[in-house]
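Ticket #423: bound-state structure for glycine.
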Amino acid sequence: MKKNVLVVGGGGREHAIVYSLAKSPEVGKIYCIPGNAGISRLAECHGNIKATDLDGVVAFVRSHPDIYMTVVAPDDPLAAGMVDRLEAEGFRAFGPRANAARLEASKSFAKDLMKKYGIPTAAYEVFTEYAPARDYLDNCAYPVVLKADGLALGKGVLICEDKAQAVDGLKEIMLDKAFGNAGNTVVIEEFLRGFECSALAFCDGKTIVPMTTSQDHKRALDGDKGLNTGGMGTFSPSYKVSAAMEKRIYDEVLLPTLKGLIAEGVEFKGVLYAGLMINGDDIKVLEYNARFGDPETQVILPRLATDLFEIFEACVDGTLDKINVEWTGDSAVCVVLASGGYPEKYAKGKKITFGALDDGVIVYHAGTAFDEEGNIVTSGGRVLGVTALAPTLAEARDKAYANARKITFENVHYRTDILKELV
Ligand code: AMP
Ligand code: GLY
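RESOLUTION: The complex was predicted; output attached.
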């Protein structure tokens, strides 16, 4: 019998997860909380419940006995213990429990784990008081990186060129509480150079299986200018990472992370994501996430040849060693269409027009909703992710941009330089 699944979240990542689950012959009805306009074509969306509403989600699952498994995708509900709450009531859930999600929710926990288990990362100090942190800035090397300890919507990282900037930044985090309680503890770390790569892996608590590599573009504007965003576009595989380097990422980062967690008595089930900085032969971990990346998922899952639902089942059951996770030979590029002004102030409610899109193109919805007349309108900063699949990255890039140009809404903004370096 087919199994019904609830997906928690409502962005492009969740659309990609729902899209892949919908292809599984084992999956029946899909529910999504809160979902969005695109997801509603594949799943029954419940926009009145928030992804962060633990009581609301648990009550929903309780009142829908047909739900076989809940997939918790975003960081906040994972860190708050949504999986723990579901399991406590005997429900099946995919995602790490709160003690494992700390790998993302507490940067000091992550840094200390890396130090203890010899996982390469930037040199750092952790401070819980302002005065010693302030003193540290007198003698450290610049640029330096300040990180608020907790979850801060990806904004709690400040790269400071000199002491004056660092003193301002530290005050902002620790005294003015610009990121709220996330800034009660601060990590001050060495600035690293190189290129970034996202290494995601499926994990069942005992076995860790790497996904294909990908690369995000975090800054809002071309040439890596402008503010940090949730991610403006991705490609997969990361052509800068050789097979030998991929093996080293597994041996030196992913496996030791899992072993370290096990040694600490932490069972990590779900998606483990290591954000890496690579410089020549040097691999260092910038951060961990305890979930799928957004928009990395929008280029990774379309390349997955194995049934995603089967992988989720294996992660929950601890049988990942029995599964062959395989990838198609395609390359994928995702261009994010954002509302002008994002990540700062932007307008909502702008009508979106979709042209006739080419084969091999998937438009994942992020911030979209229906207006009263049933038109699809913008409802968030990142609105759509246009993913194209092709035999090569350059072809996928051209196809993603050609199709992105067919979609219009007032004041649409996207980066035009993704993979520009490839001919
Ligand atoms: P994080 O949330 O730790 O990934 O930080 C967000 C972004 O800040 C990263 O994707 C990097 O672009 C940048 N970043 C973080 N830590 C460092 C570092 N130690 N050196 C250079 N850049 C960094
Ligand atoms: N794209 C970066 C993230 O999901 O954290």
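RESOLUTION NOTES: Residues 154, 216, 231, 289, 293-294, 296 surround glycine (ligand 2) (CB under 6 Å).
TICKET STATUS: resolved
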